Automatic annotation (TrEMBL):
Catalytic activity from the UniProt record: isopentenyl diphosphate + (2E)-geranyl diphosphate = (2E,6E)-farnesyl diphosphate + diphosphate
One GO biological process term: terpenoid biosynthetic process
UniProt family annotation: Belongs to the FPP/GGPP synthase family.
Protein name, UniProt field: Farnesyl diphosphate synthase
Organism of origin: Crassaminicella thermophila
Length: 296
C-alpha cells in the first residue's frame, strides 16, 4: 500500500461528499453558504473524516455508510477553527495559508458560519440516521460520541480552560486537560464513531480508542512544537502565535527536547495498541506516524 496515495484517495472522496452535502443554492441567506464553504474548502487535510472512514473500514464497515458522518465531523472541526481564529479567541489572520473567515466576511458572519456548520452537521447526521433503519442504533450512539466530544465536556470545555489560562502559569495536569479535550477529544470521537457505525465489538473499540487517545495528544503536542520551530510556508499560518497569546504549551512547561520525546512515546504506544492486527493495521500505523511525527 502506498500510504500517500491512499490518504489522497480518501481525502478526494471526502471532498466530493462535502461539496454534495454543503448548501450552495441561491437564497436570501446565501452569504452564509459562501462563508461556510469558504472555510471548509480552504485546504484542510480531512484528517478527522479520514480517521472515521478508516476506523469503519478497519472493523468491516462500508465507506458509503459513514460518509455523511465523516462530512459532519469535518464541518464541526471547521466551525471550531473559524471561532478559534476570531479576535476574541486567538485573533489569527491566516489559516492554511488563506485569510481567516472573519477577515473575509467580517466577525458577525464568521460567527454565524461557525454556528451554521455546527448545526448543519447534526442535521446531516440525524437525516442520515433516520434514513438507515439497519444502522439507526449505531448511528445514534455515534452521534452521542460526537456531541459529547465537541461539547462542554470535550472540545468546548478544553477551549474554555485554554482561554482562562492565558497569561497564567498552569501545571502539567491542566495542560493535559486542555490538549485532551480541545484537540484530542474530536480525534477520539472520529475513530470511535467510525468503529461504532462499522460494527466494532468491544475489543476492537477498546484498541482503537487507545490508539486514538495517543494519536490525539501526540498530534497536539506536535502542533505546540511546530509553533516554535515550524516552517510558516508549510504550516500555512504564523508561527509563534502561542507565545504571542501567552498560551501554555508542552515546550513552555516541559521544554522542547522532552516534548519531542513525549511525541515519540505516544507514537509507539499508538502502534502497540493495534499492531497485533497485522496488515489490517498498516494504514493506521502509517497515519499515526504522519500525524504525530510531522516535520519539526
Amino acid at each position: 500500500m502506498d500510504f500517500k496515495i491512499e490518504l489522497q484517495k480518501k481525502a478526494d472522496i471526502i471532498d466530493k461528499a462535502l461539496d454534495k452535502y454543503l448548501p450552495k443554492e441561491t437564497s436570501p441567506q446565501n452569504l452564509i453558504f459562501d462563508a461556510m464553504r469558504y472555510s471548509v474548502f480552504a485546504g484542510g487535510k480531512r484528517l478527522r473524516p479520514i480517521l472515521m472512514t478508516a476506523a469503519s473500514e478497519f472493523v468491516g464497515g462500508k465507506i458509503d455508510d459513514i460518509l455523511p458522518f465523516a462530512c459532519a465531523i469535518e464541518m464541526i472541526h471547521t466551525y471550531s477553527l473559524i471561532h478559534d481564529d476570531l479576535p476574541a479567541m486567538d485573533n489569527d489572520d491566516y489559516r492554511r495559508g488563506k485569510l481567516t473567515n472573519h477577515k473575509v466576511y467580517g466577525e458577525g458572519i464568521a460567527i454565524l458560519a461557525g454556528d451554521g456548520l455546527l448545526n448543519y452537521a447534526f442535521e446531516l447526521m440525524i437525516k442520515d440516521a433516520l434514513e438507515d433503519n439497519k444502522n439507526l442504533q449505531r448511528k445514534i450512539l455515534a452521534m452521542k460520541e460526537i456531541a459529547s466530544a465537541s461539547g462542554i465536556y470535550g472540545m468546548i470545555g478544553g477551549q474554555v480552560v485554554d482561554l482562562i489560562s492565558e497569561s497564567k502559569k498552569i501545571d502539567a495536569d491542566t495542560l493535559d486537560y486542555i490538549h485532551n479535550n480541545k484537540t484530542a477529544a474530536l480525534i477520539v470521537a472520529s475513530i470511535r464513531a467510525g468503529a461504532i457505525i462499522g460494527g466494532a465489538d468491544e475489543e476492537l473499540l477498546k484498541c482503537l480508542t487507545e490508539f486514538a487517545k495517543n494519536v490525539g495528544l501526540g498530534f497536539q503536542i506536535t502542533d505546540d512544537i511546530l509553533d516554535i520551530v515550524g516552517d510558516e510556508k508549510k504550516l500555512g499560518k504564523k508561527v509563534g502565535s502561542d507565545i504571542d497569546n501567552q498560551k501554555a504549551t508542552y515546550p513552555s512547561i516541559h521544554g522542547l527536547d522532552v516534548s519531542i520525546k513525549k511525541v515519540n512515546e505516544l507514537f509507539n504506544k499508538s502502534v502497540k495498541s493495534i499492531e497485533r492486527f497485522g496488515e489490517k493495521a498498516e494504514f493506521f500505523i502509517q497515519l499515526s506516524d504522519y500525524l504525530v511525527k510531522r516535520e519539526y
